[in-house]
Design goal:
Blueprint lengths: L2 E4 L5 E9 L5 E8 L2 H16 L11 H12 L5 H19 L9 H12 L4 H19 L23 H12 L5 H12 L5 H4 L7 E2 L4 E4 L2 E5 L2 E5 L8 E4 L2 H13 L12 H14 L9 H12 L4 H8 L3 H10 L4 H11 L9 H6 L1
Antiparallel strand pairs: 1-2, 2-3, 4-5, 5-8, 6-7
Helix pairs in contact: 2-3, 6-7, 7-9, 7-11, 12-13
Length: 364
């Protein structure tokens, strides 16, 4: 139970026992508030945190030590690639700036100075990611006292993905088809993205037994993801990622020919690192003077193709491994608005020459 006393300046101070140090010495935390009521409430809140084992004594903990502990505590709940991303933010960005400060010393000025410094060298979207991660790290330690809680973080940059035209895609497809050395492999990878809408990690996790050669279907149930141990196969984050999709017959034949061309059959269809293929694709696009796109834009191409064919949103979402609401967000990014198409359809189906306004009829 906290003890409370009135100070000479008229405020109230509560003393709360928070544990013992390594030598058995009692540790106390002092809370000062302007009124007895506020002081009691704050002391009760702290005692509740201690009782429920939510309290972390951070008065003398340096930010570097806490971030290392935070990564350790959250490692199992994060996807391997997400964990590596967070670890990079901590080591490359947060530690050089905050590492030697004690958690109790960090204030809003430090946070704002960091954010402004990063905005000079990084995009608004990237700095927003920094701030969201930093906010989470500090709130886990300081709860409602986090210096991030009242700071407005940057908005995302306007994102305009590249939408390939049919001619652009044909140029890319023809280029790999004509390659006598890597043509079958490259064509298979590119068509899985552009004709099936698979993510890069999904393509490079595919195994030969995922293909049903008679039904022309493909099972997607894993994705290649980077981790501390290198690339690993992992299950999709949500059930939407688990799916079986129909594959065009031409692509099935390409995969058959590719399999026959291999000297050694491996379990995975494309036993190479996903990031290596992305680099290879970027170099190929540049050296062959092809439309300047990222590999992921081929998946966008498939999303736009589904939209243009009038494929129902629920079917398209299932095929792409998305939630329906996420799919609609993608359509918006690709400047494909269902409402505007419907508006134009209504306009074109009402002919003013046949149906004159009532007011004009009365005047005559």
């Amino acid at each position: 139970m906290a003890s409370i006393k009135k100070l000479a300046n008229g405020s109230y101070q509560a003393t709360v026992f928070i544990g013992r140090d390594s030598k058995g010495k009692q540790l106390r935390k002092y809370i000062t508030k302007p009124t007895m009521k506020e002081c009691k409430a704050a002391a009760r809140e702290l005692e509740q945190e201690i009782e429920e084992k939510r309290f972390i004594n951070v008065d003398n903990v340096r930010m570097a030590a806490w971030m290392e502990k935070w990564l350790e505590l959250n490692k199992e709940s994060l996807a391997p690639s997400t964990f590596l991303g967070y670890k990079m933010y901590v080591e490359v960005h947060f530690n050089p700036y905050f590492g030697q400060l004690k958690l109790s010393q960090i204030n809003e000025i430090h946070i704002k100075e960091y954010m402004n410094a990063k905005l000079k060298e990084l995009s608004s979207t990237t700095v927003r990611k920094h701030m969201l991660i930093l906010r989470r790290i500090l709130e886990d330690a300081l709860k409602h006292k986090s210096p991030c809680k009242d700071i407005k973080i940057p908005n995302k940059d306007d994102y305009k993905p590249t939408v390939l035209s049919e001619d652009d895609f044909k140029a890319i497809h023809d280029s790999v088809k004509d390659d006598p050395v890597m043509g079958l492999r490259d064509e298979g990878v590119i068509l899985l993205a552009a004709w099936c809408g698979l993510r890069r990690g999904e393509i490079f996790a595919l195994k030969w037994d995922d293909i049903d050669w008679k039904k022309f279907t493909l099972r997607i149930d894993e994705s290649r993801s980077i981790s501390e141990e290198g690339y690993i196969d992992k299950k999709p984050k949500s059930k939407n990622g688990l799916r079986t999709i129909v594959v065009p017959e031409y692509l099935i034949r390409v995969l058959e020919l590719y399999r026959k061309s291999l000297k050694k059959i491996t379990e995975r269809i494309f036993p190479i690192r996903p990031d290596h293929f992305s680099s290879y694709f970027a170099k190929m696009v540049k050296t062959r003077n092809l439309p300047s796109i990222r590999f992921h834009d081929l998946r966008h191409y498939h999303a736009s193709w589904l939209y243009k064919q009038g494929i129902p949103d629920h079917y398209a979402a299932q095929r792409l491994g998305h939630d329906i609401h996420v799919l609609k967000g993608i359509y918006q990014h690709l400047d494909m608005d269902v409402k505007s198409d419907i508006d134009n359809l209504i306009r074109s189906n009402f002919d003013e020459k046949k149906d004159k306004p009532f007011a004009q009829t009365v005047e005559k």
